[in-house]
């Protein structure tokens, strides 16, 4: 389809009939099978072929879905991830499985050298990890997992053990990663923000000299079409940034500001910070569950929301934009990241309304030309409906936007997006991402967060009077009928 046709196309069902009552049981069973197949005994890989280790924000989303079929396994998912937390509080974006061959994924443990290069920052000695981070969805996930089975959670001391680790994680982001000095967390690599290949990174990355192509082998191209993946030039820049950060001892803050170790990439991202704020709200709830005061954390979340608006809101664009800290200027690119702050309960009403207009307007056209939320501006010069994060629609961002719409009373829009996510998740075999116009699957299939978040949306109360506020989280319990292929005394064991 040429670009003119893409921009005028209307979403179709691709011949797929979707009857929600009839499809729900099948969808739940299929999603549970994906999570079972990707379970390794202590955590869940995103994809057996393309991503054979544990990824940080993937595990948070996976736990959110797992809570509906095995609250114990959902708790274990997060507990396993946090056993790899560094002493400085950071949660690494990859925890490597030592049984996986080194050449199965790049960058591999021998590239990151966490136990040696990260020694000063407190990297664990017995677990190999990366040295960068991913978006902090974890406290939100922990709270939702607790709510799925509070009795099990309390009996295991789940929140009591997770809370200090989550607090240290947030402390790292709010202090060591306050690269701009205004209170928001900065990212030092595109992989940290999670939307790896977004056009938002093109200008900040342009000043990075790429690593030589012969110095690394891209394992991702062994499993995915080159046209759907980052270019060799961009990948070379990713490798250079990671190597420089590693060679600087993974240092942040004084002496390592604006990218750690003197690096050139430092960005404040709206989605990363919105998820941090959402998780601060969740930490307040966790503190109160544990008998402590949550007011200080709630006040911090409200203050950070004001800072987010002051630094990253662009009224002309009608959405939040990234701030390049090297030039202290907003990056004039519209991506789904700038819509994710709709999650926040304290967002000013006029800004929430503007975000909804932008979501349905010509730049994203949700429900008109697109079936799910595209990852990048339909009218942007860099838009590509298939290339990684440069236009395709992803299920995790669809889940976040659906939650935001519901939090701000946009029930009809939330229901339409929820139905679209469920329809496409099932129809594509739980694809990694899809063409936003046609729903054509891209990347891996049997993708864990797609399956997990589809499970969550299957359980989401949809009546207007049941609309949930973000800081309270869903109040649904898990019934015996929803346990699927899992068992509460399952293979994960009690990781006390």
TrEMBL record:
Residues 51-450 form the Mannosylglycerate hydrolase MGH1-like glycoside hydrolase domain. Gene3D superfamilies: 1.50.10.10. One of its GO terms (molecular function) is Glc3Man9GlcNAc2 oligosaccharide glucosidase activity. Keywords: Glycosidase, Hydrolase. Residues 463-474, 485-496 have a biased composition (Basic and acidic residues). It comes from the Bacteria. It holds the Pfam family MGH1-like_GH. The keyword Hydrolase applies. Coiled coil: none annotated. One of its GO terms (biological process) is oligosaccharide metabolic process. Residues 463-496 are annotated as: Disordered. Belongs to the glycosyl hydrolase 63 family. This is Mannosylglycerate hydrolase MGH1-like glycoside hydrolase domain-containing protein. It comes from Streptomyces echinatus. The lineage of its organism: Bacteria, Bacillati, Actinomycetota, Actinomycetes, Kitasatosporales.
